[in-house]
Write a structure and sequence with these properties.
2 domains, single chain, 8 strands, mainly alpha, 335 residues, two-stranded antiparallel sheet
């Protein structure tokens, strides 16, 4: 961001840097909560938001720890960032998904927000879409009842991730850094300008920035890859058509197509396990009944002249099968 007139980032003295020490140009200024800069707060708040939108959606690398101790206002009115020990990296696909999430939140579209959260990886697993969509609609309705200046994109993002906790979804590390940075950045905004309308600002300036995250930076490169893939497919097309033709002529009646649906495979395995457990449970029950009858009528030889041997064997086998059933159910996590 060296060309930005509103932002100052101290240069690093490369020849003095080691694995454990970073040496940078000396810089300083006033804290963002200094009363002396209060009149300039609205302008500084706008510059701060512009800088973070650029870092997150355009550059793909952002300062992850923007608390007041790491932000100075220089004498010429620039915002100076310090302490880059915590930084986040967002590749272009993640920036596109994050742009979709932000746009869906601004438009209060629960269905779009759900798809964007799934694409980001903060929601997933076996999902009841209707239930999750209702949860997102509740989040949106909560914000709709607030003044715009109280809206928090960071808090909304956190609430969405909490919806996925029951699915044991692990939020990507850089998104956790982003969430932390968003909370701290929003707090810094409130210090600079308590009346700053973040959502209103995003609605005005956001679309252009979000488009830069969605559109390829190198259209020529995108078309080159499309051209390469098309040529590769065309080269393989004759042999593919030849193979299909041979199969048609060999089978005579037409080309057989094998269709495999993963959900059906999972259902088949589930039914197999369930039927095996049911059969094992019936055998176990039979052994308990047999052991009880043998014990009651004292049939067969005895152990220590007290317990019928056959009854003891039936109970032992039944207990072992019961243990196997319980272990299998506990491992699957389902009854």
């Amino acid at each position: 961001m060296a060309d930005w007139p509103t932002i100052a980032i101290p240069g690093v003295i490369d020849e003095l840097v080691s694995e454990n020490v970073i040496v940078q140009q000396r810089s300083g200024g006033r804290r963002i909560d200094d009363p002396a800069i209060a009149e300039d707060g609205p302008r500084l708040a706008q510059n701060f938001v512009d800088a973070y939108l650029h870092q997150i959606f355009v550059l793909g690398i952002f300062h992850g720890d923007p608390h007041p101790g790491n932000l100075f206002i220089t004498g010429d009115g620039r915002i100076c960032f310090h302490d880059f020990g915590l930084a986040g990296l967002l590749d272009r696909p993640t920036r596109r998904k994050l742009a979709a999430f932000t746009a869906a939140f601004m438009r209060q579209d629960a269905e779009w927000l759900l798809d964007a959260a799934i694409d980001l990886g903060v929601l997933g697993g076996e999902m009841d879409r209707a239930r999750f969509q209702r949860g997102l609609a509740d989040i949106i309705s909560d914000y709709a009842a607030m003044p715009i200046k109280e809206w928090s994109l960071a808090e909304a993002f956190l609430r969405v991730t909490r919806l996925g906790q029951a699915q044991n979804v692990l939020v990507p590390y850089d998104l956790l850094i982003l969430m932390r940075a968003m909370f701290l950045a929003e707090e810094a905004l409130r210090v600079l300008d308590p009346h700053f309308q973040l959502l209103e600002n995003l609605q005005v300036k956001g679309p252009e920035v979000l488009k830069s995250a969605i559109a390829p930076s190198d259209w020529r490169g995108a078309f080159d890859r499309l051209e390469y893939d098309a040529i590769t497919i065309m080269h393989g097309l004759p042999s593919t058509l030849g193979t299909l033709g041979r199969r048609l002529s060999e089978q005579g009646e037409g080309l057989g197509i094998t269709l495999r649906v993963r959900e059906l495979d999972d259902l088949k395995q589930h039914l197999d396990r369930s039927s095996n457990r049911l059969a094992l449970a019936l055998v176990t029950l039979g052994l308990y009944v047999s052991g009880s009858l043998l014990m009651q009528h004292s049939i067969g030889p005895r152990i220590y002249d007290e317990v019928p041997l056959l009854a003891a064997a039936a109970f032992t086998l039944a207990l072992w099968l019961t243990w196997r059933l319980v272990r299998g159910i506990s491992r699957s996590g389902r009854l």
